[in-house]
Amino acid sequence: MPTADLETGAPSLLRFATAGSVDDGKSTLVGRLLHDSKSVLADQLEAVERASLGRGQDTPDLALLTDGLRAEREQGITIDVAYRYFAVPRRRFILADTPGHVQYTRNMVTGSSTADLAVVLVDARHGVVEQTRRHAAIAALLRVPRVVLAVNKMDLVDYRESVFAAIAEEFTAYAARLGVLTPGSGGGIPENWCTAIPVSALAGDNVVTPSATMDWYGGPTVLEHLETAPVLADPAEAPARFPVQYVIRPRTPEHRDYRGYAGQLAAGVLRVGDEVVVLPSGRTSVIEAIDVLGRPARAARAPQSVTVRLADDLDVSRGDLIAPAGLAPALTQDVEATVCHLHDRPLRPGDRVLLKHTTRTVTAVVKDIPSRLALDDLSPHPAPGELTANDIGTVRVRTAEPLALDAYAHSRRTGAFLLISPADGATLTAGLAH
Questions:
Q1: Distances (CA, A) of 269 to 1, 276, 297, 300, 302
Q2: Count of CB atoms within 10 A of residue 354's CB?
Q3: Hey, which residues does 276 pair with through a beta bridge?
Q4: pLDDT value at residue 296
Q5: Are 122 and 151 in contact (CB under 8 A)?
Q6: Residue 16 and residue 92: Cα distance in Å, rounded?
Q7: 129 vs 59, which has greater pLDDT?
Q8: 188-192, 264-268, 329-333, 372-376: which range is least confident on average?
Q9: pLDDT 10s digits, 355-407
Q10: Which residue of 121, 263, 280, 328 pairs with 245 in a disulfide if CB–CB is 3.0 to 4.6 A?
């Protein structure tokens, strides 16, 4: 797939996330990637050099380029998701640098939810551990299209090919079984889902520059793979989905009868003249006009933010979904989904929650938790009774009002939802509809 935008000729954009267990060297890898691709400003590098000297280090600690919070620098761990923007001649990147500590697994869910690719780090001395399996499972659940297994700290195992091969084989075998997590995937995980690369982030081997000490490896460096990996399918190719975020009624003399519905087009293309249905009411109309940045347009493509005007004066409000009349999602009040529980407070059957789907929030009750996933062998543990922080499982939820949900297998945007505490607004669970 070409790495340039077909319409503008500009370098294409790849969103990717990083994940790894504590002390696997993820921050160093990201710092090395930024440094060796010449994506670090001179004053940033000088600040890192000063901080490193203050710690008694002879060489710059590149991890400090990414661990921006004071608590992160003091503890030597990544806590929050940090988004980095950088570019090389062939491609632009948005990097979601996510924490590795099990306590912050929830942040990996946030960072990977829009990613085209995930880089999962493994310490060559320790191999595949539980957190590695958890990160792989989350990447599969969130349908991240590609994964790079970066086997780091190869310098500490004498750059032995046998160590790398054993880790890559174990991870690939585990990844092959992850199809059980993706209902409706039509065959599970693709055969080329994972690419394993041996690296030493500290020394710079195979991050940006090919390693001179691992001549047994003939594959791409991390940056080369990032430059050439396919991006997600164009969201405009899917059936149109337009969640209404805001109703615009100026009521001025110039716009006395103006009634527009503003929001971001989650998928597909909307054109003037299209027959659409408004959900959940089920009323139909025709798109009379589309405004983009205050100017009329004949069509809008995902993920543009636009204002849509309809030919009929319908009762449309925030949370409604506008979709093609013949390709609209079915309404449901009974939601079954795979979830990752994000809060320290357990989720139990009978819990009353708020369910937030696109711009719509409705009250709901957790009816059942049929199973919890065991990460070691990917077997479902039936009727666990509750889900605790970082658990992956299946839930059934009954909503007070109908929702226009797509299956997550068909749409990452309109197949995802959050369960929220009605008491304090805390996010409890991320759900992926079946």
A1: 22, 12, 12, 6, 6
A2: 19
A3: 285, 324
A4: 95
A5: yes
A6: 11
A7: 129
A8: 188-192
A9: 999 999 999 999 999 999 998 888 889 999 999 998 999 999 999 999 999 99
A10: 263
For tokens 């400090």, the residue is 64
Structure tokens at 181: 């997590």
C-alpha count within 13 angstroms, C-beta hemisphere, residue 411: 26
Half-sphere exposure at residue 154, Cβ-oriented, CA atoms within 13 angstroms: 33
Within a 13 Å sphere around the CA of 374, how many CA atoms are in the beta-carbon half? Answer: 8
Q: Residue 366: which of 405, 339, 406 has the closest Cα?
A: 339
Mean pLDDT for 73-90 is: 67
Output the 3-class SS for the chain.
CCCECCCCCCEEEEEEEEEECCCCCHHHHHHHHHHHCCCCCHHHHHHHHHHHHHCCCCCCCHHHHCCCCHHHHHHCCCCCCEEEEEEECCEEEEEEECCCCHHHHHHHHHHHCCCCEEEEEEECCCCCCHHHHHHHHHHHHCCCCEEEEEEECHHHHCCCHHHHHHHHHHHHHHHHHHHHHCCCCCCCCCCCCEEEEECECCCCECCCECCCCCCCCCCCCHHHHHHHCCCCCCHHHCCCEEECCEEECCCCCCCCCCCEEEEECCECEEECCCEEEEECCCEEEEEEEEEECCEEECEEECCCEEEEEECCCCCCCCCCEEEECCCCCCEEEEEEEEEEECCCCCECCCCEEEEEECCEEEEEEEEEEEEEECCCCCCEEECCCCECCCCEEEEEEEEEEEEECCCCCCCCCCCEEEEECCCCCCEEEEEEEC
Contact 116, 15 (CB under 8 A): yes
What pTM does this model have? Answer: 0.86
What's the sign of the alpha-carbon dihedral 404, 409, 411, 413?
A: positive
Exposure b/e, 235-248, CB count within 10 A at least 16 = b: bbebbbbbbbeeee
